Amino acid sequence: MKNFSLKTMIILFGMTLIFASCGDKGGKKGATTGSGEFGAPRGNESFADVVKRRDLNADDVLAAAKTYTPDKISDEYIALNSGGQAGSLPTYMVPSMRLVRYPVNAARQPYNGFGYSKESMERMKTGFIDGAEILWGDTHHPGYSETNGVYNGKWAAINDKANPRVYIYSLKDWELKQTVMNPIFRNEHGGAFFTPNSEYIMEACQYPAPYDHKYHPLSEENFKKIWRGGLTYWKFDVEKGQIDMSKSFDFELPPYTQDLSDAGKKASYGWGFTNSFCSEMYYGGIESGRPPFEAGCSSRDVDYLHITNWKKAEELFKAGKIGRKVIRGMHVITIEESKKYGLLYLVPEPKSPHGVDVNPTGEYIIVAGKLDSHAWVYSFEKIKKAIEEKNFSGTDKFGIPVIKLEDALHKSVEVGLGPLHNQYDKTPGVVYTSIYVDSRITKWNYIEGKVLGFVPSHYNVGHLVAAHGDSREPHGKYLISLDKLSIDRFNPVGPLHPQNHQLIDISGDKMKVIYDMPLPLGEPHYTSLINFNFFKDIDVYPVGTNIYKYTGASTDYKSPYATTAGGEKVETKGNTVHVYATINNGKVTPGNIKVTQGQDVEIHITNLGQSKLDHYVYEVALYDQMYRWRPGETATIAFKAEKAGAYPLLLDKIHSPEGRSLVGYLTVEPNAKAENAKLLAYSKRIQWDNLMQAFKPSAIELKNLMTGELEFLNYGCNACHKFGEDFNGPDLLMVDKRRSDKWLEEWILDPDSHFKDADVQALYKRFKLKMPNQNVSKDDVKKIIEYMKAKSKKAMEG
Amino acid sequence: MIALTKRFLVAFLSLILFATGMNAQQTLDEVKKARGLNDNDILAAVKTFMPRGGRDEYFGFAGTGNSGTMIVYGIPSMRIYKYVGVFSPEPWQGYGFDDESMLMLKKGSLDDRIAKYGDMRFPAFSEAGGKYNGKYLFYSDGANSRIALLGLDDFETKQILAHPLFHSCYAGVAVDQNTDYVVQSSQYPAPWDLKSTDVKDFKSGVTFWKFEDAEHGKEGHHIGRMIKEKSFTVELPTYELGYFDTGRNGSDGYVYGIAKKDGKTFIYAINYKALAGKADGSKNSMATVSTKAASGNVAYIPVNGATKIKVTPDGKYAIVVADEAVVLDLSKVNGAVKNGNIDLASVKKSSFKVGSGVKDVAFEMRDNVAYFSAFNDKKVYKFDYASGKKLGEISLTFGPSELMVPQGLSADPHSNYLIAVDKEGIYKTRHSVGPVRPSYQHLIDISGDKMVDIYTMSLPQANVYGNVGIKRTTIKPIIRYPLGTNTRTGEISAFRTVAGQEKIERDPKTHRVHVFGTLIRSHITPEIVEVNEGDIVTFHLTNLERAEDETHGFTVDTYGKHGSFEPGKTASLTFVADRPGVFPYYCTEFCSALHLEMEGILLIKPKNYKGPTTGAEVKLTKEELAEYKKNYEDKLVVIKQTQDIINGVVEWLKKNNFSKYPYVAALVDDAFDQLKKAETAKANHEKYAKEGKWRDAFLWAEQYWQYQVKTADVGLRAKKLLAEKIGVDQ
Questions:
Q1: Which chain B residues contact residue A678 at CB under 8 A?
Q2: What is the ipTM score, two decimals?
Q3: What global pTM score does this model have?
């Protein structure tokens, strides 16, 4: 209170304020109105009025002043978050905590146009594992590229747990430049972490599986013999921003369910650290009476910290001495090779750990174990000594040397229940640890083993991030607590809550929570916080750029479809109509496009605009086709002109209040063969849906349907038949008067049954379409016939 | 083991809350100086900063353009609370990835397909008596011609219907005063048959989607839906249609909108309640009213340069937005609709010059007050629309376009806040992250005599147009579902599975496999599933949690499916097991300390597989068995100690009357739920101990302890929350 200066305020508002010094009391509902009815005009309010109305205390006012960032001043940092199951990467500014962007990942993202152009689809397809169309990712840990252990502002990388992939982004435009699939893992977690000069990106396996991707029966013996964990070191070209698989290698590891990793730096440069849980190698089977994974995977008191010597492995790999075994394209350093050349060691660590974090000098490694109340500080010097002296307590079941805990441990410090992740402060020796169960952040000195203070986080903090807090030169100043839950904290928005990211001021001795930010999309696990001065982004691209190939490092980004003003044209090659178009000053040339149903259409558009405002969405209405063109970008929307008719072509000027305007029409001349193909594809989709589950609409919709109408729709009868007019098939009005129930039933259940009949042949000649077998069930066919009768009757009456 | 646990115990007991007073950090003056803030900045800061746990006064919902995703945020903190997939699939929520949402999207389409995106610009709330009732939100899709309904009980998309006629829809929607109809119009003229390319077949129209509502039991589910069979479309000549609004009170039953043709602008007015039941045709299952049948109930008023039209809160007037704003007297307009063409002078109440590049208007609680945005002037003007007198203006650093006042499109607009959209978003001091920039909108304080711009909000992944805002407490969200709910229909799913009833059903003839499973922290039942290559596999999963926030996610690695399972929800994920091998599956939502252990394995056996089908189990040595026995006995001690801690927490909670605080009580319920689940584990470990199967005994004892930890975990949080509520240090 005494440090809270009111002088200016008193002069300005002419009154004295008394704050209640009530600290961090939660549950404040933020009183809303002054006098009178809710929503009535409040009139002119002084500072004191506002403080009173909103029930703010001195801490609140200070926090507001520390985070409020009006247009005249700048934010300092940007937080790049993993999006979890959303895939895309939420990014927000610090300290204002305003979201600015979601760099794309594996899911389509219409605002960016990602997954809607041919070029972006090509980028996506490089991540289709075994050719399977996987349109989402579960991103966990972003990392920035480094030079000499300091962020160099060039690239970011992130991993995908569900679909083992690593993604590379350029910090010039924050767009996705590469997707690399891990060919031997089925699931991963401990990535993507750069080594200090971005030589490699570490990616550790999570749930083990056989490397050969083949089926093997699950048994205790097979699990130990065939199931494998692993740690892949992806060779990274820091200039080009590309991973080179041929120069990458993987450490074969026991099936210990590896978890997070970190690369050694300075003192521990050349080494990597990876922790694990379930070193019990247990698998559950609760349905067959086996205790579940959660019981068996946490039954030992300790798990193993894996220590890998990547520098030595690199030399041996380059010399052709190790890693010659290639599995599914990946060079694998076998456990035997690791043992032979001294590349892999284990040290016990607290059970079910999560974070493993190397300190800025590389001398210490802190491991946090979620089921322990201590953080364990390992000394790299001690580890090195034990390795050099071959001072091992023995080996694990795979013969990998195990260093005795006492011989590696510097300190174990009680920091709170459920320590999860660590981030380093600017002050040497100071670290922040998130405490999951106790829901707090502990600040402590890992060299002296002394706890310095706590700050309560709201709820179940997962990871945390400090400014440059995992680099060689941490900035201190800001810390963010990534709280997994947000009960009773924000306006309620249904059963799926936002996460809560709490900004903590760590510039002083005491940590102060200064902002609670709801994180509205996805479930971030890990964040990296980079200062804006550490990277340089661009506003526009050179005209004709395929942005998914643009890295700023090479010149092969020019699209073969780049079109200049005046060079617009339409070309038909085989069955494909190529339209070469431009957007020039908000005008699209050419405007109208004419094709025939069944043709493939590729509209290649070059955005000639070169200002920050020149962002356009071009779309084909009702054709589900669009893309967003950045300034200078060339991109293609490619589709089959499946349906006939006239469809507006539209241009939306994103950064203009004019909005959307009509460019012209896509006219698709009908073609009978293409119409048939369209209907058959429709029929196939219906058949697949019916395999999924019987669709049942909500009660009110159902109430408004006639008996059998739902079945009529669910089997897709409406694709071809209407009542009162011929459509793709014959008019069904009064069909019950023309055909017997028996005939109809036979016909629907098996269209081949009457196909040869002369009258059916006559219809076939007319409609040129054979009635497909929709696998209608016997019960449903009766309902459909009933519906056709009732609908006809209603139509005749109506 | 025991040593570790003692530390665990100490940590439990030393749980300290810090209700500290002022810290010895910077003073406000120092912060101001360091950050270059002045007194006005601090005033704006305290008006928008949300103290911890505070609630925003209003919810804002944004029209997000081609993102196809709803954004809900709080006013005045301008923090975004949630993105919800509407017209575009969204993997976080499993929207367009689980069977239930896929079917909802497909069956609402015309060709059994899920469109990949939509374009939504001007949302509308459901109303009762002209006031927002906080139950539903509607969006129109300007790209793929659909209409959407969101339930504001759980903030999920509940219905998507493809428009059976329009190739191009205006991306705005309006609702009448009792939500009888949801109005949607075409934008650019096109044929209505997905066939013709002839300009002569081009049409325009306005559709009135019939809406029916019902309460669903005591859970408060909002299960109202639009009923296609009772809806109708009024055909209009080939105008390009724009923004529209519905009448209110005296003008109820009318819709007024912008129509353009050959460079001329008109206001159209439709007396649609008179046209209900007047359909003289039907196309693609949509009743249609031809221009002939509609004549006498549709009229046009020429108004130059009109960009928008909005009906005043009392329903007496409509303001036509233009540089020279026009106030229409709606009783006169409605009286003249029968004439078809209306002379502006005969229905105009007044007009007044506003500014240059006028884009929008917004109303507030004060009588006759309207705010106009003028893009070219970079100003917002405040007018008395009854007198045409300018009441004030604010110069902005940007050209404003769309405006929104909370409750502003209802009969009950509020004062104090105005949101103005900045489409250009050029800020010298604001860093960007590459060419793709967010949308921006500003919060303008209109509570006092002078308007003040107090906050600049960025909205990424959104091309923001219109917003709507509603008083926070009008929306009454649920926090969990009745067990087994299909959230898209609001009904109990046929695949609901309760604890103990998990099973796998196989039909070898059709290669169909149904897994009926459950999710609870921290295991998925079943944990091991084996199928054959080519099987069509569905995981039907039910989240058994009752605790708020205990959402689980589910995916099978590299099979491209993802589901989000909020407490009580049942959803299904179907895929063809077309790639043999070993595929871990796991919970994707961080749900507890043992979240990472919430995993399972799907084994897919190849076709014609000839290899071994089982592998050897590892036999325990005598020594190993003895060690397990010791471990088991140690574990029993730990269990006893942990129980003491739990008892201590319970005692504290009881002493402090926890049941008076619903959030705390819910947590305590959950804690005891966890302990109840432990009973099976206890029976198992005791049974195996009797049989001398020490490994099983130990593992089940371990499982018992896991439940205790969960109990303690939740109990401690309840304690923390209660301590906060009652303001005591522990």
A1: 111
A2: 0.94
A3: 0.93
